[in-house]
Write a structure and sequence with these properties.
The structure is a single chain. By secondary structure, the chain is α+β, with helices and mostly antiparallel strands. It has one domain. It is built from five helices and six strands, in the order E-H-E-H-E-E-E-H-H-E-H. The strands form two sheets. Strands 1-3-4-5 form a four-stranded mixed β-sheet, covered by helices on one side. Helix 1 runs antiparallel to helix 5, helix 3 runs antiparallel to helix 4 and helix 4 crosses helix 5. It comes from Novosphingobium hassiacum. This is UPF0262 protein GGQ88_001148. Belongs to the UPF0262 family.
Length: 160
């Protein structure tokens, strides 16, 4: 029976240079939520009879996002590579807004926090739409999965 979803996700720890407690919490939540509920169907692997679930390893090399997809037993199925040039601005904006958000949580009013959070969600949503567009024809997924994947892409871009 087909089960097109991610059952396990791994981030290339060598790619992640530094992260603070706030970012680590974002990573944990994104991975937990992603594993709990996602839609993920790599089209080449699915067409070849591998109908899920899938293991996914994310890494960044030379400005490209590497999505290494394996079957649930860990046997490699395919690798999808996406250029990250178009994501530089949303990643930079997301980090800036998140930094403002984390600072606001500690000392701002509820209205200020809500305004910053709305801006953060807007950047996140736009980036998820862009990721869906970039995955078109390679991997079928849904909007909530793309949002969580974008969070993890951001984690891979943290520099100390």
């Amino acid at each position: 029976m087909a089960d097109p979803r991610i059952s396990h996700i791994e981030l290339d720890e060598a790619t992640i240079i530094w992260r603070n407690a706030d970012i680590e919490q974002e990573r944990r939540i994104a991975i937990f939520d992603l594993i709990e509920e996602n839609a993920f169907k790599p089209l080449r692997a699915f067409a070849a009879g591998h109908d899920g679930p899938y293991r996914l390893k994310l890494s960044v090399e030379d400005g490209r996002l590497i999505l290494a997809i394996a079957d649930d037993a860990g046997e490699p199925l395919e690798t999808v590579i996406l250029g990250l040039g178009r994501f530089r601005r949303p990643i930079r904006e997301y980090f800036a807004i998140c930094d403002s958000y984390y600072q606001a949580i500690r000392k701002a009013s509820a209205n200020e926090i809500e305004t910053i959070d709305m801006a953060r969600r807007g950047v996140h949503n736009d980036a998820a739409d862009m990721l869906l567009e970039r995955l078109d024809g390679k991997i079928e997924t849904d909007f909530p999965t793309a949002r969580r994947l974008f969070t993890l892409i951001c984690v891979l871009h943290i520099r100390g």
